[in-house]
Design brief:
The complex is a heterodimer of chains A (267) and B (406). Chain A is of the alpha/beta class. Chain A is built from twelve helices and eight strands. Chain A starts with a helix and ends with a helix. Chain B has 16 helices and 14 strands. The chains are: A alpha/beta (267), B alpha/beta (406). Chain A: Belongs to the TrpA family.
Chain lengths: 267, 406
């Protein structure tokens, strides 16, 4: 069983929901990232999504775009992110780690080279924003052979037949993007998310994490009541951005926010 | 890859999911999939609908001013001393470039689909102007995304768009040029998917855009083929067009693809020279990857990050190229030479002085390559060059470059 499958099984058995923070690797500077990942685990993260900076993040809002630009200014690209993942694993062999990014860096590395590198870094899952299931066959095959999960995005307007397609090719969990739009936009309509989750669950038994619009303990609690996992990204990166002159302060605020979410989700 | 498409068979790319061999396809975030599917279904339906085609043809004739002339540039041909040069006068279209052929088509489609809001990206501003124009005519809201760098160097077109009632949004992210404008337009589209139609201006983007934009631009090649047969009494020996994303080139090439005796040259922008790295020539010096929804040749570094491009012409300043051009290159059906900024300026001045026609800087790349090609050919041979746009918008850039002030 993959680390992701094991983690979701363990959470289910204990009646808890996954807290899944996302940060962009290399933001605001490369040495910030790995210690931050460990701190997030201590604060209650169950799974970590690590963003791979990309020059053209088409599906991201301004907050994550700027995080990418800050990381790229330090030349943090896919190869560097893989070394960060490897470093994280040296002292944490249990927390599932998912790389989230865009397809072009993987295309340039080559699918096989990428799959081998991900395996060497002991990364558990890959979420490629602009790789829909229809185009994913070659990449998924190589990842699956190495026990790595390919995670797919679901949108509010995703049709049932596409959900079943993702159920076939995807594994680990599915990431439901609860809003139309880019990351960091708008706010959440709980009743609507609940309806959609019901439809999703009738088409797949994979765990479903919900993101886009999770900002604080309250929204985390609301989502945890109806989904298998809560993804929080832009709210964390906003802390980095608000404290560029004092990254340690950013770290403290991120930890505080995650702890408050953890507590709200568990009680 | 020549084995997968035996030249001489009838060309019928792309496949149902938009693939030109390994290129093209649909590489978008899930949030965009339903919109892409809706667009594809509407496109497949209306492109075969006689009423739609009749309305499109009428608009192209009465609003755009088609057919555009094919003009025998006799003085220039004689001066170069080789092949006879014929110019396909897309510069004479309403709004001054080939871009309007496509925006008229997509706007009619938007209307049929009941969309009330139009968005577009633009580089040189020609596509933005062509989009704002059709939006004004149909009474649709129009938002145009334009890199902040391009806003500065194409001020005249920005003003034209504003006059036409469009909102021009300067894009400050990334390299602040065409690719970033495309990113921002895609972000707008996912956010406003229900009422918004995204008019992409070139043969890039996810399927069906590369095929759809080609089909709307193919009127250029269909006319040129007929006009060349009428005027020169035979098919051309060579076609020349500039390639940024490649919409004017594919529009000219497409109706000739099965005419294997017709050579096709798509001219990329070499900027300061390929060797300097400061260029916009992915087919000459890039590699295959995925950007903006399709697989194609790109300018990317070893981490897969997109490299900043350079060209004197904003319309060619793009790190990718339409996937069909990638395919035509791989199978050897078309060749993709390149022309530097300096050479393009020579082409600009040559056409202006020899024929009294001021070409756009984009089209000047095609003119400059024609100056190299024509003298290598016989006087009874024929080159059709796509004069894709007029140069009025570039006066400021050229004056600046040549140190002239009024």
């Amino acid at each position: 069983m993959s680390r992701l499958a094991a983690k979701f099984a363990e959470l289910k058995a204990s009646g808890r929901k996954a807290l899944i923070p996302f940060i962009t690797a290399g933001d605001p500077y490369p040495e910030f990232t790995v210690p931050m990942l460990h701190e997030m685990v201590k604060a209650g993260a169950d799974v970590i999504e690590l963003g791979v900076p990309f020059s053209d993040p088409m599906a991201d809002g301004p907050v994550i775009q700027r995080a990418s630009e800050r990381a790229l200014a330090h030349h943090v690209g896919l190869r560097k992110v893989l070394t960060m993942a490897m470093e994280f694993r040296k002292t944490d062999q249990t927390t599932p780690l998912v790389l989230m990014g865009y397809l072009n860096p993987i295309e340039i590395m080559g699918y096989e080279g990428f799959a081998n590198a991900v395996q060497r870094a002991d990364v558990d899952g890959v979420l490629t924003v602009d790789l829909p299931p229809e185009e994913s066959e070659d990449c998924v095959k190589l990842l699956r052979e190495r026990g790595i999960d390919q995670i797919f995005l679901l949108a509010p307007n995703t049709t049932p037949d596409r959900i079943r397609k993702m159920h076939e090719v995807g594994s680990g969990y599915l990431y439901y993007v609860s809003l139309k739009g880019v990351t960091g936009a708008g706010h959440l309509d709980t009743a609507d998310v609940q309806d959609k989750l019901q439809m999703i669950k009738s088409n797949t038994d994979l765990p479903v994490g919900v993101g886009f619009g999770v900002k604080d303990a309250e929204t985390a609690r609301t989502i945890a009541a109806i989904a298998d996992g809560v993804v929080v990204g832009s709210a964390l990166i906003s802390k980095v951005e608000a404290n560029l002159d004092d990254p340690e302060q950013a770290k403290r605020e991120i930890i505080e926010l995650l702890k408050s979410m953890r507590q709200a989700m568990d009680h | 890859m020549t084995d997968t498409y035996p030249l001489g068979d009838k060309y019928d790319m792309p496949d149902a999911r938009g693939h030109f061999g390994p290129y093209g396809g649909i590489f978008v975030a899930e949030t965009l999939m339903p919109a892409i599917t809706e667009l594809n279904l509407a496109y497949q339906r209306y492109i075969k609908d006689p009423d739609f085609i009749a309305e499109l043809d009428a608009d192209l004739r009465d609003y755009v001013g088609r057919p555009s002339p094919l003009y025998h540039a006799q003085r220039w041909s004689q001066h170069l001393g080789g092949a006879q040069i014929y110019l396909k006068r897309e510069d004479l279209n309403h709004t001054g470039a080939h871009k309007v052929n496509n925006t008229v088509g997509q706007a009619l489609l938007a209307k049929r689909m009941g969309k009330t809001r139009i968005i577009a990206e633009t580089g040189a501003g020609q596509h933005g102007v062509a989009t704002a124009t059709v939006a004004a005519r149909l009474g649709l809201e129009c938002v145009v995304y334009m890199g902040a760098v391009d806003v500065a160097r194409q001020a005249l077109n920005v003003y034209r768009m504003k006059l036409l009632g469009a909102t021009v949004v300067p894009v400050e992210s990334g390299s602040k040029t065409l690719k970033d404008a495309l990113n921002e337009a895609l972000r707008d589209w996912v956010t406003n998917i229900d009422n918004t139609f995204y008019i992409i201006g070139t043969v890039a983007g996810p399927h069906p855009y590369p095929a759809m934009v080609r089909d709307f631009q193919a009127v250029i090649g269909r006319e040129a083929r007929r006009q060349c047969l009428e005027q020169a009494g035979k098919l051309p020996d060579a076609l020349v067009a500039c390639v940024g994303g490649g919409s004017n080139a594919i529009g000219l090439f497409y109706p000739f693809i099965d005419d294997l005796g017709v050579k096709m040259y798509g001219v990329e922008a070499a900027g300061d020279g390929i060797a300097t790295g400061r260029h916009s020539a992915p087919l000459s010096a890039g590699r295959p990857g995925v950007l903006h929804g399709n697989r194609t040749y790109l300018m990317a570094d070893d981490d897969g990050e997109i490299i900043e491009t350079h060209s004197i012409s904003a319309g060619l300043d793009y790190p990718g190229v339409g996937p069909e051009h990638a395919w035509l290159k791989d199978i050897g059906r078309a060749e993709y030479p390149n022309i530097t900024d300096e050479e393009a300026l020579q082409g600009f001045h040559a056409l202006t002085k020899m024929e009294g026609i001021i070409p756009a800087l984009e089209s000047s790349h095609a003119m400059a390559y024609t100056m190299k090609l024509a003298p290598t050919m016989r006087k009874d041979q024929v080159i059709v060059v796509n004069l894709s746009g007029r140069g009025d918008k570039d006066m400021h850039t050229i004056m600046q470059r040549e140190g002239i002030s009024l």
